[in-house]
Each structure stands twice: as structure tokens, then as C-alpha cells.
């Protein structure tokens, strides 16, 4: 079920890494091929100084499994709007519902049918064996069914807006990261469709916290107006970016936050959270899509395994009542290490990369300059054992992924 009238065909660069890539390799090799053909071809990532000159550069690494150790640009970097249409629609047994959403949920223990009783915004009422809430960071399924998790959204104190502006040759092929005082950052990323994807990010501080925290209740026009006022004296290409923002029709603003809750399923396993709804790692982790893919794979794998076992042990062709508690329990256990790793961000982030003062920006640029130099210079070879240590840890982590048989051979 999708609240929007159709698949959402916009959104900026998202990364696919590690175990997420492995799952596609195994189960959806055609999809992975299509994704690789549609990557943004970003050549790397530059940090700019106050004059707009390159202070540190990180060319893309062609090994997507551990590339985030060496470059913010991943090998598999695709526009969100290009990824969603690539998912094939299910067969005739799958029903898609658009422009609707869940308004009320009754758990099986209190629902007359013994199933999950759902009331949709359109007024339709239905019973389901299992409800999977994959409705994003501000999940309404989480709000309705996980009453003890009302404070699940943990703000990281930053607000980001995404929109598309016309490409200009000066944008080149690298992403450009520009810091301005007061925790402001402008990021420009040329895409593979003749446009430049722009991000305006700002840290909440005493002077702007009230207005930023209120962003959710503002219209798009009001959000743009607020950002114009907050960014107009940022320097570099601010004028062009703000004009582009004004004209953009894909503007999207979001609080940078993580979702942390003790459990992703109700006690009988019949209401389950998946992806950002259960464990959003925030865009700064670059792991949101990977965790959503890994979560979907593990949850589907455990459901198939458990239901097959119940059918095999049943006297009837199909058990009268399916039990979902075991699949939910195993989903929790197997997914938790991936989530903990995906949500682990550098201590102090994102504030550390978005200083409040010019002096702080100077220090940041010196540090990333040294890191960039180390990663490209011969000295890097001296440190290569460190890299291979981390890479082998990554591999160990990915190898923890169970392999499921979805089609009985
Ligand atoms: C419009 C948009 C743009 C994004 N842009 C970026 C980006 O540029 N970079 C980045 O790293 N990440 C971005 N993300 C987040 C990224 O897509 C996710 O972190 C990741 O892919 C995990 O996906 P998800 O399916 O769990 O959540 P999401 O991708 O957030 O998908 C949730 C879906 O649920 C739908 N939905 C929400 N509430 C309801 C409801 N009440 N009823 C029915 N449907 C509902 C939404 O329309 C959406 O399609 C964006 C998300 C959205 C929705």
C-alpha cells in the first residue's frame, strides 16, 4: 500500500553496499545489472574551501563492499527515483493499493476475526494474517501498533533538503561539499540525467532551533522561504542554488534522525516493521537502502521457512492458523547485528562535519585533507593492512547473512 498516487519517482542519490549488494547478486542478478547500468557515475567527492577551491578529494572506489572506508561516493550510487521503477511488480496474486493508508489497527488478540484488523483512511476495513509496516522514518504503523515506541525517532540535530537544479559545466563530475559557518552545508552532486542534485543542510542551534523543529508543519513554499532566509549569506554558489530551489518541483525536506526501538514486531509477530520504519540509520550513514534490502530478505526468508515447516507438520493441506511468532523472533535476532552496524555513525556526527565557525571549518578541511592525502599516497600502502583488516571484518559481517531458498527446487 502506498500513500502516494503512484510509485514515488523522485529522491536523490542512495547507496547500496555490502550485504545489500550480495542479496541482489544472489536473488535478483538482473535487477543488480540494471542498477549498475543506471548508477550516477559520480567520479568522486570533493571538499571545498571558503573560496570554492578543492581542499580534499576522494575519487570513487570501485569496490562497493568496503568503499565507505575510503570515499563517500559508493560504487553503486543510484537516484532513488531511478531505483523504485526497477522493482518488478509481483504477479497477479499481489494487489497494489495507492492513495490510501492505515488509519487504525486492531491486534489479533482484540480483533473479532483473530487476525490483524485494519481500517484504511478510505474507510475500507480488512483482516490480514500479517501487516508489514515499511512506511518510512515517520511510520504510522509504528505509531499505531507500537505504542511504547512513541519516542523512537532520535534527532541528530540536522535538517536537510533535497532538490534538483539545472546542471552547469562548472559542476564537473565530482560531488562538491561546501561548508558555511552556523553549521550550514551545500552539497552539489551531478547526476547521470543532465541535472545536479542539490542538498542544503543545517545544524539546529539556539538561533534557529524553533523554526527548524517546526518544519514538518510548513508547506513546501514556506520551507523554501525558511531555507532562503537561513542560507542567503552562505557564499559560494548560494545564489544559483537558492534560485534552483525556488524553481524545483521535487523539493523534499527532512530531519536527519535515526529510528531506535527495542523490538520490530508485536508479541505474536503479526505486525512487523521493516526498513526506515523500524531502523532508519539516517541519510548520513548511507545505509538506509542497504538495511531495507537486508531486512526484507531476512524477513521474507524467515516467513517462507516457518510457513513451509508449519505446512509440512500439518494434517491439513494448509494449517487453520499460521503462527508468525517464530519468524518474527528470528528476524529480530538475525537483523539486529546489521542494524547496529548500519546505525553506527562517527561520534559527534553530523555536527563534526558541519562546524559553526570559520575556524571550525578550517580545522575540518585540514583533517579531511590529511585523510584524502593518506588514502591516495604511497603511505596508504603502509596502512593497507588496516584497510584489509576492516575489509575482512566487513566480509565476516556479510557472511553472517543466512541464505534462503525462496523457490523449492
Ligand atoms: C521522497 C523520498 C526521498 C528520499 N530521498 C532520499 C535521498 O535523497 N537520499 C537518501 O539517502 N535517502 C532518501 N530517502 C530515504 C531512503 O529512500 C530510505 O532511507 C531507504 O531507501 C529505506 O527505504 P524505506 O522503504 O524503508 O523507506 P522510504 O524510502 O522512506 O519509503 C517509505 C514509503 O512509505 C510511504 N508511506 C509513508 N507513510 C505512509 C502511510 N501512512 N501510508 C502509506 N504509505 C506511506 C512513502 O510514500 C514511501 O514510499 C528518501 C525517502 C523518500 C520517501
TrEMBL record:
InterPro entries the UniProt entry points to: FAD/NAD-bd_sf, FAD_aromatic-hydroxylase
Domain of life: Eukaryota
Full protein name: FAD-binding domain-containing protein
Species annotation: Glarea lozoyensis (strain ATCC 74030 / MF5533)
Upper taxonomic lineage: Eukaryota, Fungi, Dikarya, Ascomycota, Pezizomycotina
